[in-house]
Amino acid sequence: MTQTPTVRILLADDHALVRRGVRLIVDREPDLEVVAEAGDGAEAIDLARANDVDLAVLDIAMPRMTGLQAARELAVLKPGLRVLMLTMHDNEQYFFQALKAGAGGYVLKSVADRDLVAACRAAMRDEPFLYPGAVTALIRNYLDRVRHGEEPPDRMLTAREEEVLKLVAEGHSSKEIAEMLFISIKTVHRHRANLLHKLGLRDRLELTRYAIRAGLIEP
């Protein structure tokens, strides 16, 4: 059986206690290892140059150079390096800025013990890690565009699809949506698939790209 290669992680946060906590979460996993620690964005860039790392986990707010600035620099310096933003801010604007800076995911510190490992693995599969509030923001923005006539007619949603989309935006699971609308889970899944098709998307990563392309993300 082939052993999964260990993901080498660069961790940057200006609080030593946070770095220690993150290291404890990550180092419990056999396929993840923190190999370098930085106290700010500038140090993170120096360490990325000096170390062979696969993934950078960056705090958004750091002295000298923020995580957002560091992410932009790292995208140029090491294009193959995956980046996750780690933050205490459940803030849509920060999330949008993180996407534009090249981050593949956005993890809230308050739930890092639950989400961080999954986000690291998703990043290494080139899949985005979107916390529920971020998905909600993208969906609501899309619905606003539809209502204001900014989407072409062939992309317009049916009343039922919009109903499903609203419930998704409110964070309901497929099972809950099925029960609320008195339809089968299979039908909910079909509506979800139709929504993605009408948006011209295949998955969440393309939803993110759509949001940037359609101007849902403020410059």
From TrEMBL:
MF terms in GO: DNA binding
Entry keywords, A to Z: DNA-binding, Phosphoprotein, Transcription, Transcription regulation
Pfam families: GerE, Response_reg
PTM sites of type 4-aspartylphosphate: D59
InterPro entries for the chain: CheY-like_superfamily, NreC/VraR/RcsB-like_REC, Sig_transdc_resp-reg_C-effctor, Sig_transdc_resp-reg_receiver, Tscrpt_reg_LuxR_C, WalR-like
HTH luxR-type domain span: 150-215
Classification via SMART domains: HTH_LUXR (SM00421), REC (SM00448)
Transcription regulation recorded as keyword: yes
Span of domain Response regulatory: 8-124
Keyword presence, Coiled coil: no
GO biological process, one term: phosphorelay signal transduction system
Protein name: DNA-binding response regulator
